[in-house]
Amino acid sequence: MRDLSKDHSLLSLNTATVRKQGDLLAIIEACSRHGIGAVSPWRDQVASVGLERAVRAVKDAGLKLSGYCRGGMFPADAARRSEVREDNRRAVDEAAALGAPCLVLVVGGLPQFSRPGSAPSKDLQAARAMVEEGIADLLDYARAANMPLAIEPLHPMYAADRACVNTLAQALDICDRLDPARSGVLGVAVDVYHVWWDPELDRQIERAERGRLLAFHVCDWLVPTRDLLLDRGMMGDGVIDLRRIRACVERAGFDGFVEVEIFSEDWWAKPMDEVIQTCIDRHRTVV
Ligand code: ZN
Fold first, then answer.
1. Residues with Cβ within 5 Å of ion ligand 1?
2. Ligand 1: distance of its center to the CA of 192 in Å?
3. Is 72 part of a structural domain of the chain?
4. Structurally, how many domains does the chain consist of?
5. CA-to-CA distance for 48 and 144, rounded, in angstroms?
6. Among 20, 61, 60, 11, which residue's Cα sits nearest to residue 40?
7. What's the CA-to-centroid distance between 152 and ligand 1, angstroms?
8. Domain carrying residue 186
């Protein structure tokens, strides 16, 4: 298991963690100042400063990426399929321009939430089928662009509105069906917030192996959790056995960045430097 206590060279900051404190350029500048070597930006943050400026800022700062957030939101009415396809292809192109190692997929839930304006449906099985079709369709494009797709299973509390892929087993089943040769173009993003509770977790991480483990996200699960989306905890403040899960992914061969991804009104209310310094401290002591 890698020793993170000596420095923070393996820390990546998911830029949503400080999205309220500044734009992407300000975040990149702060990361440089704190000696952080990698980030994982969001599409809206890139769009608001412009792709070219974002690409240049990442390059000038000498930053690597640990991922790009995000593609997906596949379920939609038939009339909107081309919108879904184009939107996801653009996400692949942006990820490639930024030099991301993978495009993270939040696959979407029921059509009316994934693509507002779609007809209301309660058919979760149909939504899951649309997700698989959408990934299959995007995979050819991603392969041609040499951009791996990382399916991120989300906690089941998001099944309706964000992702109807809810366990690592389900995500890996999709990978095995669509990319049986394990070509490296399709894998998973393991986010502790979404999978820590899963009794199958260790077995599925082992099953994923290095070739399918494309990203590893950390934060913590607070008790009580006051908001389903915006109350993630700083590492060490909750109940997730972070070190044990990290040992598990590293045993399976994962050797990439440990990405801090916290959506929290509490942490968004603090100064950016304080949040980043706390991420660094916790990365070294509890992750
Ligand atoms: Zn995540």
1. 191, 217, 261
2. 8
3. yes
4. 1
5. 27
6. 11
7. 7
8. 11-285
